[in-house]
Fold this protein.
Amino acid sequence: MSNRLSLETSPYLQQHAENPVDWHAWNPDTLLLAREQDKPILLSIGYSACHWCHVMARESFEDADVAAVMNEHFINIKVDREERPDLDQIYQTAHHLLTQRNGGWPLTMFLSPDGTPFFGGTYFPKRARYNLPAFPDLLERVAQVYYNNRAELTAQGEHLIAALTETIPRLDNSEFSLNGQPMNLAIQQHKEHFDSVNGGFGNAPKFLHPAELDLMLRHARSNNDDQSLNIVLYTLRQMAHGGLYDQLGGGFCRYSVDDRWDIPHFEKMLYDNGLLLGLYCDAWKFSGDPLFSNVVEQTASWVMREMQSPEGGYYSSLDADSEHEEGKFYLWQRDEIRKLLDEDEFALIEQYYALDHPANFENQAWNLRISTPLKDIAYRLGKDEEETRRILSSAQEKLFAAREKRVRPGRDEKILGAWNGLMITGMARAATVFGRTDWLNSAQRAMNFVRSTLWKDGRLLATYRDGKAHLNAYLDDQAYLLSALLELSQAEYRSAELDFAEQLGDNLLSHFEDKQEGGFFFTSHEHEVLIQRNKIGHDNATPSGNGIAAQALLRLSTLTGKVKYTEAAVRCLKLFYPAIRQGAAYHSSLCTALGEYLQPPALLVLRGTANSMREWQDVLQSRYLPNLMTISLPDGITSLPEILDKPFRENTTAWLCHGTQCLPPISKLDELLAQLDSTE
């Protein structure tokens, strides 16, 4: 029999609908049930693409004996961390405070009926191993502690709530001025953490750090810092060569378990790939490296092929597992590849993907990564590079076609506002840089879906699946979608999108901003009351919502001339400034916002016919100009804000503006480029 989770929109929750565990979703009725029955809550948080979540489910949640213990002693709540990031943030922080260890997924927390946690961990095996207790034994001990040690748990809970409160930043009322010192400190710390051998930062497991790389690339441009530039370009090359990147189908996995980017946990997340699309576009502008443009091409194609719903929105993720084995969809046996390719193709692929070296995965399998430069292989085989590239393309097409016949990983088909914002931004920037109308149409379709489905009565919702949109939007939904709208406006100006951007900006100010202290809460003022209301400034796998909100509001002010957006961004920066100075490396997106406040983005307005503007647009988009917003306005555009309302002229004319001050009209491209160079 199905439990209550069969009625939920989350694919992750629905995966547990047939468990013998009496699962509940997090809602007021469930919390009331825990209070009425005076039972502790077992809170299990995960997501559908998570490998170890599946392992714990198979071992324990699908086991009738384990389920019986859970059902006897606990009110069991299953949460999708992607639908309820508010809960995930609170209880990950609580886990760290209780255990002094980092969390992760699955997160397993034990709570009093009021939601206060008293014990927790991540994955627990059914039988004791990995220096972890057996989950059934743990359940019995936790229940015993709950019923026999109430006074101690109550006191501990009070201390924990106080500790959670201490994590919320407070405004420093002393006099200070915002300056660039934290940005320089962040850059220095990133340089110290750089892995000069393999690229990236720190040791295994290796994560992607898009906010950090974006900050370093901007710093390289504004300060002529070759070291920062080389760190970014080297890291992006190493990632693109590695097994972290799907060499046949495009798209990046979430992180690498080793230093060399060889072996990932194989889930592909929408948010990672949206962020990396923009980064690889910017890296291509700096370097002209065809590797970067190829990554953009492959990844954008993967997004449209596998991650965009017929309705227009982008799906959330692809699973790490297929046929209950992690990575099985992506792995190869050497003989399997030999049979698919002709002699010339195999001779190349064998060297290109190091099939002539020991296998890099379990059971003598290879996870493909580029191991030898193509020009070196061409030399060894006595072929020119063009012919070698043709052979490589033919071999990859055959391998991809064969892989498409395999059992595919599961796909989480819920559509999240925040993650759609990140992918829309990436696709829109890629479309602008490479002149791809199909990519732009994809991004516009996704934004149209958001407006028609997640935007209801002037308020934004967080998630959609199977015809149902629900849950109040979070800060990340508002901020990432606002940023996406500004990127879309630069790709192709549409007045409706700027109107929507202003509505989201106003919502940030009215429903999320802390008017007394500054900054933005993760949840809206009308949100369900939880044991903590977060206000987060540091970056995680995705950039800080406060950092992106501050960046987007500064740019929205540039486009509209409305100073209220700048003022809110400044209040945010002042709130977090002490934290940025103390831990600069963890606040890269806020450092980027600080940089844009100290040197506000310039606005370039182009007017002319679509044909006459094309050359100007192509030249401008080949340059990395992160502190410039470009709006192209062909004839027929109406209802423009005053700052954009420039007279139409047959031949392309440019207005370069700083704040509300614009230079005289510029009618020659070389004059504009000279002016941009002097401004930078």
Observations:
- Residues 184-323+412-598 form a domain with the Glycosyltransferase fold (CATH 1.50.10.10).
- Residues 557 and 564 are 8 Å apart (CA to CA).
- The chain has four domains: 4-166, 184-323+412-598, 330-405, 602-679.
- The first strand starts at residue 23 and ends at 24.
